[in-house]
Structure formats: C-alpha cells, structure tokens
Amino acid sequence: MLKFENINASIAGTPILRDVNLNVEKGTMVGLIGRNGAGKTTSLRTVMGLLKPTSGQVIIDGQDMTVEGAYERAALHVGYMPEDRRLVPDLTVEENILVPAWANEIPNLTSRLAWIYELMPEVEAFSSRRALQLSGGQQKLVALARALMSGSHLLLLDEPFEGVAPALSRRLASVLHTLKDEGLTVLLSESDYTHSADLLDAGYRIERGSVTPIEQH
Fold first, then answer.
1. How many other C-beta atoms can be found within 10 angstroms of the C-beta atom of residue 66?
2. Over the stretch 138-160, which tens digit does the pLDDT of each residue have?
3. What structural domains and CATH numbers belong to the chain?
4. For residue 216, what pLDDT is reported?
5. Is there a smaller number of Cβ atoms within 10 Å at the N or the C end of the chain?
6. Predicted structure pTM score
7. H/E/C letters for each residue in the chain?
C-alpha cells in the first residue's frame, strides 16, 4: 500500500531524511518510532506530498506519487492526521470533518459520516460545537474523524496520543483497534511504544533521519 524507496528529503537546505526505505503492507498497522526531531513528521509530510523529496520514490497503492501534488492523494483515499490537529477553530466539529469531502467532492459523504459517527459516537455528541470549544483530546478525535473521511484505504497518524489524557488515549487506542480489525492500512508515528505496542504489526525506528526495521518478537 505504501513504499519509500531510497527517500532523501531536506528542509531549507538541511537534510532531514537519509536514504529511507519503508514498506507498509495493505491491511497492516505499522509504527514509525523515534524521538522528537528524528524525522517522523517529515516522513508523513513526504507521503502526503506536502514536502517533495530530493531523491527517491514514494509509491502509494502501486502508483508513483513522488512528484504529484498533495491534493492527488485524495483520489487514492489517503487520510492524514497531523500532530497539531489543524482544525478550523470557528467551524463546527461536523464542518471540520466534512472539509475533505467538500474539497474533494467525495460522493458517499453521508454514509461515510454516518460510519464515522458509529465508530466514534462521542464525536457525534459534540458535532454541533465549534472546534475551539473542545479540549485537546477531543480535538484529536475530531482530527482522526476528518482523516477518516478521505482515508478509507490508507491512514497516516502523526503522534495521535501526544498530549492526550489517559482516558482519551485509551479511547483512541480502542478506535484504532477497530480500524485494524476492519483492515484499514495505517502508518502511525510515536515517540515510543507506550500506547501502540499491541496495535502494531511491524515497526521502524527513525533516528536522525535514518530508518531501520524493528525486529518483531
């Protein structure tokens, strides 16, 4: 579903990713584990086309997307949950969730929204509230819901548990377990295995922009 082939990427002339090779098989949940500043967010932004690599290839669902624009990912049903949530504060929760559907003219938005609310009924409960009225953990749930609107094949989650209270962390983990059971392909970044150890099928460790597979025991 997702493959990095010898990816190098720089920001303002500073090398960030160094010859990264990474493979996420369809229907699996894979972790990208590393400390802050190791290159996790840069990796996910490169998948999304928000940062163009200086060399190498980004393959999504068999298609070379290396030089394609970020908006082209929508047609491949890729969803992205950034670490800082990036909700529109003055829009309601439901409007934030529907933004990808409006922007990309997703045809089945009504049934997709109903599925998201079934998955996360607490989000439906505050769907009429403005995003700025939510706690940080609630905003994480909304950001996940928005990513799921377009991410029916591949989901990218950047530090989903970061800064979230323990109760909401457990709830997020429960939702991710359900998504895994439904066969969604997920690439999840985290600083350690605190929340994701029993979720992941495989993992990669990233350090100073270099990635190595983590041996599974």
1. 18
2. 899 999 999 999 888 999 999 99
3. 2-213 (3.40.50.300)
4. 64
5. C
6. 0.90
7. CEEEEEEEEEECCEEEEEEEEEEECCCCEEEEECCCCCCHHHHHHHHHCCCCCCEEEEEECCEECCCCCHHHHHHHCEEEECCCCCCCCCCEHHHHHHHHHHHHCCCCHHHHHHHHHHHCHHHHHCCCCEHHHCCHHHHHHHHHHHHHHHCCCEEEEECCCCCCCHHHHHHHHHHHHHHHHCCCEEEEEECCCCCCCCCCCEEEEEECCEEEECCCC
